[in-house]
Amino acid sequence: MPWEKSFDENAVIEQIMEVFWEKGYEATSISDITEATGLKRGSLYNAFGDGKQELFLRSLLKYDREQRAAIIKQLEAIEDPIAAFDTLFDALVQQAMADTEKKGCMLVNTSLNIAHYDQSVQELITKGMDEFAAFFERLIKRGQATGQISELVKPKPTSRALLTFVVGIRVMSRGVLNKTALKQASEQAKALISLGR
User: Fold this and answer.
1) By Cβ atoms counted within 10 A, which residue in 10, 54, 158, 179 is the most buried?
2) Is residue 157 part of a domain?
3) Does 158 map to a domain?
């Protein structure tokens, strides 16, 4: 008799994602995952492939789609590029303050040890970071087209610098910087697009 799933695959990946997000890849065991999902090892492997790496990749894909990609889509819908920048960097500080478990961002956390993962994870992280930088570059160019951002602001290098601020705020918010310091970092990021104004 062929094996059939008796669970919601998306809900299970959500549970697995939460485990990896909280504990990190190395500290997460298959036992942690079976305990969180209530599924046996065989059921997990039948549904998602053989191994922790595959479960992690699926979790990371879900996080990337529902967090980074969704955030960029929301920000792209803001007509005023300056307002979009302000919304993002203000939100980073607010999220950091609300993150009482100090979990940070799953993509950023993974990027800090990117060399330890296989090619599929490395490509996902690199693509996510590149798309974030490209979003910043589009926003800068849009602001320059409307005269809100000076032509002195160089879109590509500034977009990379802004990405560095995002990563830095995400990392340092896990316990090193307090709210005041995070707000200062956020304001410095915003200042990068104020050149010449």
Assistant:
1) 158
2) yes
3) yes
